[in-house]
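A favour between colleagues. Tell me how you read the following sequence-structure pair.

===
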Amino acid sequence: MTAFFRTGSFGSGTNVSRYSDVDYFAVIPTANLKANSGFSLSEVAASLRERFPLTENIRVNSPGVQIPFGLDGSEHTEVIPVDATGTTRLGFRQFDIADGYGSWMFSAPESHKVFVDHHDARLNGRLKPLIRCVKAWKFYRNVPIRSFYLEMFVTFCMLEVATIVYSIDIPEIFDSLVINGCNSIDDPRFSDMTIKGCYTDAQRVDALSKAGNAAKWSSEAWRAEADGRTAEAFHMWNLVFNYEFPNYNPT
């Protein structure tokens, strides 16, 4: 290993309390990696089991290896073996990471972080909380859709927006997921690349069904709020977030 640094949602400030694990890129020389990324993940997992013999269930969780140091997701560490492949046109480091199918795929997390940071600043710090809300739905409803995909999807939906109103924009994001079919999207930073939402078509169908429910419930929550039916609005938001939403207290 030649470098080791934190990335992912904790690194960008879009993590969800109790659910998001802490991701680290472990930069490994090309000669020490396998052409089949799954073999490299298995070797890293074996090495980490040897290093942490008292930690149970260290396992491959493509594109990395998950080390469950505690019970909450935030106590889990994910080590992602990567191959450094140079820099992007804008000078950010780029890597190859496991794609979940035995091959390697492009990744430039620092470039995407700057992209989200820029639009979060433009939207007065309201973009990252919006991303966390949509990711919370993923975790609370056990939606098999990639967190990185949601982060880029939400940011992409807000590119032409001047201000964010959560009760309006969350239903529109779910509607957009349904319209898109939870299919791959163009990478907003690299025009010749796409970002996959789910690893399998079965996962995509499941995610699409749950996005449809969330779109319906969140739209009903917005209509209830607009009509002054606050208690009903809270109830509908609780359906969206699987009863993890704050309870309504009229006092």
